[in-house]
Amino acid sequence: MRELLGAGFILLGIPFFIASTVGLLRFPDVYTRLHALTKADNIGLGLICLGLAVQASSVAVALKIALIWGLILLASSTGATLIATSAIRHGPAPLRRNDDDTHAGR
Amino acid sequence: MLLRVAFYSGLWWVITEGNGHVGLGVVLALLIALCAPLNVATWPKQLRWWKLPGFIGFVLKHSLLGALEVARLALARRYQANTHTQHYRFRRLTHHPQQLLMANLVNLTPGTLTLRLHSDRLAIHILHHHPQVEAQLQMLESRIAALYGLGDEP
After folding, report:
1. Does chain A have fewer CB atoms within 10 Å around its N or its C terminus?
2. Directed axis angle between helix A41-55 and helix A2-26, to 10°?
């Protein structure tokens, strides 16, 4: 039963990773791509971690997996802000609604 | 102090998957508990620990909504996002650690990304602007304020 439940969570996590990767390829600038990385990826990883935690051999192992996810969440969120801050200082300004990006959505 | 040693010992137990040397874990926990407060304000006194589970639930729920929004936009036939940048002025969070926590959590909530943290406001990038964004940010700030005991939850 636990194996099945774990596999279910892992399978649920995969579409989020796929959506995140597609977003990374389709979104038009660094700022929108960071949205894809910080949100969809983290939930995908969270579901995979949950699936692995359910299948873990002990509570300590399950908590360790949860701790790893928490630390990745923190690092990913902090990293996104640092990249965005650096990009806004040295890179192009964020695209606005009316800006025409010919590569977006392809 | 006892709580800190118990927390760090628990962390040791988790990291070693329950197989580590207990004595070494307690000694390390004691050392960290004694040394950490000298340089790092890791244990804010005003933090309402009993509100933490509800707060984590709130963040997870919003993270899931954020992921679903990104997935919807990424997988849409044609990318049509109403991207926008705006400033959010802090109303209740006055200390840097609280503002930093909000800046981090903004990245996990639906459609928002912190571009820059100023002393009194956040520069925010919005993936798909809608009228509820401001209310969503205010709700997040209220939750953080409540966690730090700065006021009642909305």
Report:
1. N
2. 160
Phi first, then psi: give them for residue B153, nearest 5 degrees: -65, 150
A95 touches chain B (CB under 8 A): yes
Query: Considering just the CA atoms, what is the radius of gyration of chain B in Å?
Result: 19
Is the CB of residue B110 less than 8 Å away from at least one CB of chain A? yes
Question: Count of CB atoms within 10 A of residue B31's CB?
Answer: 12
Tell me how far apart the alpha carbons of residues A68 and A48 are, in angstroms, rounded to a whole number: 12
- Taking CB atoms and an 8 Å limit, are B67 and A16 in contact across chains? yes
Mind telling me how many Å the CA of A51 is from chain B's nearest CA?
A: 16
Residues in chain A with CB shorter than 8 Å from the CB of B57 are none
Residue A80, pLDDT > 90, answer yes
Selected residue of A81, A83, A95, A98 to mutate for chain B interface (largest B Cβ count, 10 A): A81
Do B83 and A15 make contact, defined as CB atoms within 8 angstroms? no
A86 touches chain B (CB under 8 A): no
Average pLDDT over residues A86-96: 85
ipTM: 0.81
Q: How many CB atoms lie within 10 A of CB A47?
A: 23
Number of CB pairs, chain A paired with chain B, less than 8 A apart: 130
pTM (two decimals): 0.80
- Output the CA–CA distances (angstroms, integers) from residue B33 to B27, B41, B63, B86, B91, in the order listed: 10, 12, 32, 41, 33
| Closest chain B CA to residue A84 | B115
Three-state secondary structure of A22-69: HHHHHCCCHHHHHHHHHHHHHHHHHHHHHHHHHHCCCHHHHHHHHHHH
